[in-house]
Amino acid sequence: MPLRVNTGRRWNSVKVPSDSEWIVYCNELSRKHYCLLIFPRRDTSRFLSLVPDTVPLSSLMLPGTHDTMAFYGWPISQCQSQSTPLERQLHAGIRVLDIRLAIVDSRLISYHGIYPERAPFAEILSTVHTFLTTPSTSCETIVMSIKQEDSDTRRFSKLVREEIIASPGGLGMWYLENRIPTLGEVRGKVVMFSRFGDNGYGWDNGAIGIHPPIWPDSDKLGFTWNCQDTMVQTQDWYAIPSFLYIPEKVALSTNILVANRDSCPTLSISFFSASSIPLAFPPTIARGLGWPQWGIGFEGVNTRVGKWILAQFEKCEENGGVDRDPRFRGWALLDFYEDPLGMVPLFVECNFRGRKSGEEGWVSIV
Predict the structure, then answer these.
(1) What is the pTM of this model?
(2) In 10 A of CB 226, how many CB atoms?
(3) Domain range spanning residue 286?
(4) Model confidence over 195-245: pLDDT tens digits?
(5) Which of the pair, 183 or 292, is modelled with greater confidence?
(6) Where are the membrane-spanning stretches (predicted)?
(7) pLDDT at 27
């Protein structure tokens, strides 16, 4: 079956036979020149099975979704397509969940700001448990950021604990230490990243997982904090003035994912999402608008990020291959992650580039 290239985008995944061992990307260099990049096809539902237990989560590239359950409220509150429910996200390779909750009638329900997103926390927990206890995917781990979207701090913290205890797997399937674990420590578990509960009220020894002490609102330059011996750098500039700031947003969000080989242990967390009224709605920022390849409209964040990753890989091939592979590490959270198709496999492939035995906990090259 011949390769079929759709040149309607600046880059895209190329359709190949379903049983092919390879995935192919076409990156547009100019109007008449294209570059094909070929990578091994990896099973996104269980890609972490190929990573050694000794690798810390800070040395992985974990794709995530911003406002994971925000399927409603278009165009202001919706951040994910209704065709990508949580189960599909997990099998697609999403490993960082951004769960935002509020108390409704003594239950926790997913919310985005003041907009109800309908899914009960109990339902989310059940879906995650099923994924992590299915034999083919029990080798995986999931980072779950839990953010409070209402103001009753103590009651919220108490309800999170109670609903986890009542869910399948209970507290036993959660990693609750405030440090960055290795992958082997958390296979089959959920790593809590708590954006609630200032002092861990209602939890044993106040243990509520990885707990950032600060989270400045929409800090353009990002911020850093320490999680024991790991420096965590975070980029969450979301209140961009308009779509004209997309290039700057992309530059800031991608730069922190380039790992410094000689630095101290570092976890980079990058939100590729943005929203402001009326010129930067989430769907527009993520997907772009119009037909930019014809000079009508503009490219969204996702297309630009994919092009950036492919360009770095292309430079690597030009400069000599594996030993000079760029190291992209961190947790990358996207809106509308399937638009364009091929975004998540690109992030997954970053886990197998720039690796050397003995570095970053890597004991062998896969």
Answers:
(1) 0.94
(2) 11
(3) 11-351
(4) 998 888 889 988 999 999 999 999 999 999 999 999 999 999 999 999 999
(5) 183
(6) none
(7) 84
Q: How far apart are CA 198 and CA 200, in angstroms?
A: 6
Nearest Cα neighbor of 35 from 316, 258, 272 is: 316
CA atoms within 13 A on the CB side of 199: 2
Taking residue 254's Cβ as centre, other Cβ atoms within 10 Å add up to 21
Examine residue 74 and state whether it is found in any structural domain, yes or no.
Answer: yes
Scanning the structure block, which residue is given the tokens 């960055």? 180
Is 181 within the bounds of a domain? Answer: yes
Residue 361 lies in a domain: no
Tally of residues, the chain = 366
Q: Give 247-284 pLDDT, tens digit per residue.
A: 999 999 999 999 887 678 999 999 999 999 999 999 99
Token digits of residue 301: 């964040």
Number of Cα atoms under 13 Å in the Cβ half of residue 364 = 5
CA 283 to chain centre: 17
Residue 280 and residue 246: Cα distance in Å, rounded? 9
Closest CA to 60 of 349, 356, 365: 349
Residues paired with 109 in a beta bridge: 102, 120
> What pLDDT, on the 0 to 100 scale, is given for residue 6?
38
% pLDDT > 90, the chain: 77
Nearest of 77, 125, 39 to residue 349 by alpha carbon: 39
Strands 223-227 and 296-299, sheet pairing: unpaired
Q: Rounded CA gap, 346 and 312, in Å?
A: 12
Total of domains in the chain: 1
Q: From CA 245, how far away is CA 248, in angstroms rounded?
A: 5
How many Å apart are CA 294 and CA 48, to the nearest integer? 39
Instruction: Note the pLDDT of residue 295.
Output: 86
Q: C-alpha angle with apex 275: 269 to 278, nearest 5 degrees? A: 165
Beta carbons within 10 angstroms of residue 192's beta carbon: 23
Compute the distance between CA of residue 195 and CA of residue 147 in angstroms, rounded to an integer.
Answer: 5
Report the C-alpha gap between 193 and 196 in whole angstroms. 9
Whether residue 1 is contained in a domain is answered as: no
pLDDT above 90: residue 101: yes
pLDDT at 7 over 80: no
Find the CATH number of the domain harbouring 268.
3.20.20.190
Question: pLDDT per residue over 13-27, tens digit each?
Answer: 888 998 999 999 988
